[in-house]
UniProtKB/TrEMBL annotation:
Protein origin, superkingdom: Bacteria
Keyword DNA repair in record: no
Record key words, sorted: Nucleotidyltransferase, Transferase
Domain Nucleotidyl transferase: 3-235
EC number: 2.7.7.71
Name of the gene: hddC_2
Keyword Cytoplasm appears in the UniProt entry: no
InterPro entries recorded: Mannose-1P_guanyltransferase (IPR050486), NTP_transferase_dom (IPR005835), Nucleotide-diphossugar_trans (IPR029044)
Gene Ontology molecular functions: nucleotidyltransferase activity
PANTHER family (UniProt xref): SUGAR-1-PHOSPHATE GUANYL TRANSFERASE
Protein name: D-glycero-alpha-D-manno-heptose 1-phosphate guanylyltransferase
């Protein structure tokens, strides 16, 4: 299984605590956050990474080089910021297998069993499968709405679960059918947002499904969660 990791984040909201690094390289207990990601997904069966890099890309390339723990790493470089959609489109050119691939946000960690996600994705023959995390409603995240057939019907939605108001959020871990998703990129500008352009089209076409997982989830994009990761991540990542 090949994985594309979006690793070009500027980390604007983290500048007060991490001023000179791309967001995935923010140090957690003495190691880059991205290293925890790669370690985890290697144990899940990923055998090749494509890192989509931009801001201070040399910090990533010099640290990881062409392989990590014996697993090859290739890089998709952006000469100018392309947005998440443009970055994914460029990185897809480096895929050696034109079937399904894992797509990861470089600033979030989500403990998702890859074998379970693959079985679910194949059973629906979907273009894209979301991995969702259920949490209490809060100001930082919006949810996605999923019907009884596990089809994603709306983004930026809320749903009541039991007696608690909770949301199912996009956990930043996707399985994607390479060939089926390519047409969605055809009419997009070179620079565009995957979340604002591609995902809504997939939902409108009923080509996205979602599986809810209950593993550890953290997004280090703001200082408070970055600080929380310092004490949590070694305890929580299996």
């Amino acid at each position: 299984m090949e994985a594309i990791v979006l690793s070009g984040g500027l980390g604007t909201r983290l500048r007060s605590v991490v001023s000179d690094l791309p967001k995935p390289m923010a140090p957690i207990s003495g190691k880059p956050f991205l290293e925890y990601q790669l370690n985890y997904w290697i144990t899940q069966g990923v055998d090749r990474f494509i890192l989509a890099v931009s801001y201070k890309s040399e910090c990533i390339t010099q640290y990881f080089g062409n392989s990590f723990r014996g697993v090859p790493i290739d890089y998709s470089f952006e000469d100018q910021p392309l947005g998440t959609g443009g970055a994914i489109r460029e990185a897809m050119q480096y895929l050696s297998k034109q079937d399904i691939f894992l797509l990861l946000n470089g600033d979030t960690f989500f403990d998702v069993p890859l074998s379970e996600l693959k079985d679910f994705h194949k059973s629906y023959n979907a273009t894209l499968t979301f991995s969702c995390y259920e949490m209490e409603k809060n100001e930082r995240y919006t949810g996605i709405l999923i019907d009884t057939n596990n089809k994603v019907t709306a983004l930026n939605a809320e749903v009541i679960v039991g007696n608690q108001q909770s949301i199912k959020i996009n956990g930043g871990v996707y399985l994607v059918d390479c060939e089926a998703i390519k047409p969605y990129f055809v009419d997009q500008d070179k620079k565009h947002s995957f979340e604002q352009k591609i995902l809504p089209s997939l939902v409108a076409d009923h080509n996205a499904v979602a599986l809810t997982h209950h593993g550890y989830f953290i997004d280090i994009g703001i200082p408070s969660d970055f600080e929380r990761a310092q004490t949590e991540i070694l305890k929580r990542i299996k």
